[in-house]
Amino acid sequence: MAYAEILYRVEDKVAIVTLNRPDRLNAWTPVMHTEVKAAMRAAGDDAQVCVIVLTGAGRGFCAGADMSALQGIQSGERRERAPEEPFDRQAHPSFQRTYSYFPAVPKPIIAAVNGPCAGLGMVIALYADVRFASETAVFMTAFSRRGLIAEHGISWLLPRLVGLANAADLLFSARRVAAAEALAIRLVNRVFPAERFEADVLAYAKMLASEVSPRSLREMKREIWNAQFQTLGEAIEAADKDMAASFASEDFKEGVAHFVEKRAPAFSGK
């Protein structure tokens, strides 16, 4: 598929999806939305892809919704979006909404936040499974400074990551949060030096793609996100059922074999 506002490539079993409007700090548009979802579908369906990295071209990750779209809404030009086909109809209903489908993508998604990440761009980053930031990254919820509310599920996501009080602070104030503070409040997993950012992120992604069972990644991702709606007992019961299937899998056999034989793994993902 030819893309207009993103770039897509696969490197050593890692799909790299790059938001590609660097002159607008990769501000989000309907075209970008459609293309990112198509890229996630392509990566999810590709047996040669084990991990997905989402990042931005130029000096920014995503500055949020394109301001021209917000101006259109203000002037009464807003058009109702037609209902979208869910990414996966078998996924939890909460993961079948417009922006909440990342948890339904059957492979880990790493948000590589290389610069400013604001508003809707921050929502997108929070739906990723792991967030890495460049030391030059800056985060801002932005909504309160536009007269808006906590959009698209960020009121559910953000407190789970940084706690209720920190989430309230970030949402109420919409202040700028530098990478070091983002790491301290657990908004991101790790911070890398700017000059090594892409290399360090890809090194981690390629480690997952080469050393870890793709089946384990797929099943663990599903378990982690589904557990957000389960009691501890329900999570244990679901895991007990999943464990029986894992014992019968090819990747379990290979996981034992490569350890015993002291060699690199050759997982099939089955």
Quick recap:
This protein is α/β, with parallel strands linked by helices and 270 residues long. The protein has helices spanning 30-45, 67-74, 120-127, 154-162, 164-173, 179-184, 197-211, 214-227, 232-247, 250-260, and strands at residues 6-11, 14-19, 51-56, 109-113, 116-118, 130-134, 138-140, 177-178, 190-192. It starts with 5 loop residues before the first strand and ends in a 10-residue tail after the last helix.
Description of the structure:
With 270 residues, the chain is α/β, with parallel strands linked by helices. It folds into two domains: 203 residues, 2-enoyl-CoA Hydratase, Chain A, domain 1; 48 residues. A six-stranded mixed sheet has the order 1-2-3-4-6-9, sandwiched between helices. A three-stranded mixed sheet has the order 5-7-8. Strand 2, helix 1 and strand 3 form a beta-alpha-beta unit. Helix 8 runs antiparallel to helix 9. The longest helix has 16 residues.
Give me some keywords for this one.
single chain; 270 residues; 2 domains; six-stranded mixed beta sheet; 42% helix; globular
